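Suppose you are handed a protein chain with no further information: no name, no annotation, nothing but its sequence. What can you learn? This example shows the usual starting point.
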Amino acid sequence: MLVDFSRATCLIFLVLLALSPPCSWGAVIERDWRAPGDGLLTYDTVNQREWLDLSQTLRINFPPNYRVEDVALELEPGGMFEGFTWANIEDVTEFAQSAGIDTTTLDYSVNGAAAGIAVNLLSPTFGPTSVNNSYSVGFLNDTLPSSLGSPAPAYALFASLPSSASAGLALRTNVGDTARPPNSGLMLYRNVPEPNAFALLVVGLAGPVLVYGVSHRSGGEA
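A reasonable first move is to predict its three-dimensional structure. Written in C-alpha cells, the prediction is:
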C-alpha cells in the first residue's frame, strides 16, 4: 500500500493548526536571571523578550547622586545590565498588551486582573497598601510633553487600584530629576528569540511520516 505523503503532511499541518492557540492570545511568564528560582525575568512570549525585574534597577540601589541616566550607563559593555535595552513607549505598550492589558483604558473591570499579574511579575515599586493598591513604575528612554509644555522623561505606570476602580498602563512624566521617585526603576528588556513550538512539532512529525511513506513506497515497488 502506497502512502500519499503530500496528503499526510497536509493533514498533520491542519490538525496542529487547529490545536495551536491564536498568536493574539499571548502570555507573560516568570523566568530566572542569575540563579534558579530568583524569578527576576518576565518573558513576553509574543515579542520574545525578557524583561528585567524593576527591583534590580531601582534608583535606591545606587548611590544617592545617581540619576536615571546614570543607571542607564550600566547598559554599556561591562555594566551590570549589559545585553539589555532601555525600553521606549512602543516597547512597553507591546509588553502590556502581551500581558492582556487593554492599553486604551484604565477601567478596573477590564484590566484589574491582568494589571495585577503584570505588577507582581515586574515587582511592585509602590504598595501594596491596605486596600491592595499596587504600582510598578519604570522610566523609559522617551520624553513626553510635561505640564509645563516642555518634554520631560517618560515613565510607565502599571497599576492595579481597586480603591479607585482603575487599572492598566499609564504613560506619564515628572518635571526635573529631583521629582523622579527613587523607588522607581528602568524598564529594561533583552531579545530572546526562541524556536516556534508549532514549527518544531511539524518538523518532528514530518520525519516519521516521510520514513513511513518512503518505506511503503519501496515495499510497493519491490
